[in-house]
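One such given next:
>
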Amino acid sequence: MKRILVSLPSGIWKIINGDLKGKIGESDSEIVRNVVIAYLSEKGYLNKKVGHNGKKE
């Protein structure tokens, strides 16, 4: 698993902290991870078989 540092504008942070906490995750990192996964899935990037190492199988 890769760890990264992400900076978010305060308006986005208010949405994450207020509207999304408890709905798509409990911790800050879990919420951001789920938002990224949902975006990639919506755009069709997750339709390709990708292993845990990030490489196409």
Summary: The radius of gyration is 13 Å.
